[in-house]
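Hi D.,

Good news: the full-assembly prediction came through. Inputs first.
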Amino acid sequence: MKMLSKLIKARETGIMIALVLVVVVATARNPTFLFSPDGFRDLLLTPSILLLLAVGQAIVIITRSVDLSVGSVLGLTAYLTGRLFIDLPGIPIIAVFLIGIIFGGLLGLINGALVAFAKVPALVITLGTLYAYRGINVLWTGSDRINGSDLPSAFLSLGTSSLFGIPWLTIIALVVLVAAGWFLRTQRAGRELYAIGSDPEAANLYGLKVTQRVLVAFIFSGALAGLAGVLYAARYGTVSSQAGVNLELQAVGAAVIGGVAIFGGSGTVWGAAIGAFLLLTINRALPILGVQDFWQRAVVGVLIIGAIVLDRVLAVRQSRKLLEMRDES
Amino acid sequence: MTGTTAARTYRDYSQPLWRRLLISREAAVIGALALVIVVSMISVRAFAQPITITYLFLDIAPILLIALPMTLVIITGEIDLSVASIVGLSSVTVGVLHQNGMPIPAAALVALLVGLIAGAINGALITMVGLPSLAVTIGTLALYRGLAVGLLGTTAVTEFNKFWTDIAKSKIGDTAIPSVVILIVVLALVFGILLHFTTFGRGIFAIGLSPEAARFSGVNVERTKFILFMLSGVVSALAGIYYTLRFGSARGDNATGLELSVIAAVLLGGVSIFGGRGALPGVLAGVLLIGTLASALRLANVTSDVINVITGTLLIASVVGTSFLAWARNKRARPGGTRGNSPTATG
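Then the structure:
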């Protein structure tokens, strides 16, 4: 058991080292990458929104599902945020946050209900809602867009200002991360998510409430995408109908790079969070390293493939070790 | 993906053939397609004109082409998310080579080779390293698109020989049907025969139902999957060449997101995402259904984005409807029974 925990630990330390390496090399080339107020802030600020999506995605993937609709949920909530401030002047910011989270959770509930009760794979359902939610967004928004001037300045400053040098967005994302990490590691319901992902049939036979747990995982993912949508509005100020397009693959990519197995049952939200950091930090580091940022997606692709090949190698080695242990005893 | 009781429905072969055909999923999609065409012809004035057919086929040709190998890949229980990125990569290959003086046919051949290699990389990672195709092709989706965007940056190659761009947009004789339809029909026949009338095709279904059982019955599972991913790469590259010539523009971000349209159409056409079930006629009807709806709505001055809502809703309704029907039929036919639920029982 000790060896196993060591091995899992090694998986997250691996990407952590990669992340540190990228930051160190980029800083060596150009010290302002880290050692300037803006550089340090951007380092933390840029990945915060993706971090939230990656945490939600990790939880869903751990139960052997996938949520492709998160980008569309983010887009809808971001526009809703703007509309709330425009249509209800003086609405408290905290209320907007709550509405955003609940709205995202409801969209997640629709995903989860379709997946859990209709027994249709999540890939198909969330591919459908990816289109449907985005389409509703485009219908609702049209060519309209939310501008920074439509939003209260207190809300906008939330997206860029810091507390003791750490951006508020990052603080919010880290609080969510710690809460999700604690829940998955120590809580019974959290452990059950891993059991369901490892073997849904066995979990069902064992008497776990599979349907209910999967439903909750999707509500979670939706709510986090909703929160990310509110933060998106605060961070960027402008929201068009295309906000968050293609983010779903980045979120899945971050989780996969972070060691969350695509077929469920293993991985942590910590890994997914570091994966999100690594993805977007590389994005910012490439121009400094003299690589045109056009190549960023290719690098991301290599990273994802490298990560799953590494996982495969680790898994094969581990199963061989376990076999040896069994043979010895 | 959700590994919850993957209730596979098997066709009840005790029913006569005509009844099986009538209640099949393919028949439902083709019926829906016919309904959409009839309703559009009556209610949308500009729809019942030859030019509609021209643009319909010009627009959906890439989806129709890529849907063919995608159907086979999904029936084996795998998936290929990298197809649209291969379209982009092939488009950029043609563009860059042509810019440097290579004639279009030679550049197109190289692009096809690039597609073959891209598909072979997918296939090798999936069959030789043993990785899940979903994860691999999310990775190569980013990788191939990244190569395409990296090679051309934000620039575009638009200088193409008019002779070739005209061919991409040409029509068959005096009819309104674009020439590309010939290509689609030929490939559809090839893939249809391959899937439904050859040993190789039966192997594809067998793999989707149970890879283990297929292996024990002598199907070379790895080789079959490898070939399918290479086919997927080549056909995607072909779609990329068409896309480039049709719009006269090679860009790194050509056809971004097309993979989702293709998969949506294939699933709408009745192919099971669990593998082992599906037929090519249904898929073709699925693509045409989405395409026809889109063009009818566009002609009726509905914004083109409505089509996203409709594609998504259709997809969900079709899969949820199918599993609801299966559930209802099960409940009526054999209360408590589990006949035909295990692959071994059907022999």
